[in-house]
Amino acid sequence: MRARRFPLGHAKTRQFLKITHIHRLNGAPDGDYQFIAFKTSFERKAVALEEVVLTSETGHWQVSGYAFR
Question: In a structure prediction context, what are the per-residue pLDDT tens digits for the chain, which is 69 residues long?
């Protein structure tokens, strides 16, 4: 995750947008997933949408994916 975000610089602001809970995710087994979306401003990208994917395979929520646009 750090390597992908490095070119953007440090986050200047981050605003929570929404959480979406789903049970089916393409390419993954059925389970409990949460998508957390943020509107973020970075040093070298004024506006970005960040998405963090959490999964609860072991009974504890843990990060299983990250993307930004």
Answer: 778 889 999 999 999 999 999 999 888 899 999 999 999 999 999 999 999 999 998 889 999 999 999
Closest CA to 35 of 16, 47, 52: 52
Q: What radius of gyration do the chain's Cα atoms show?
A: 13
Q: Could you report how far apart the first and last alpha carbons of the chain are, in Å?
A: 14
What residues pair up with 36 in beta bridges, in sequence order? Answer: 19, 52
d(CA 69, CA 64): 18
| Residues facing 41 on adjacent strands | 13
Q: Where are the alpha helices (DSSP H) in the chain?
A: 2-5
With 0.90 as the threshold, say if the pTM is over it.
Answer: no
Structure tokens at 47: 């506006």
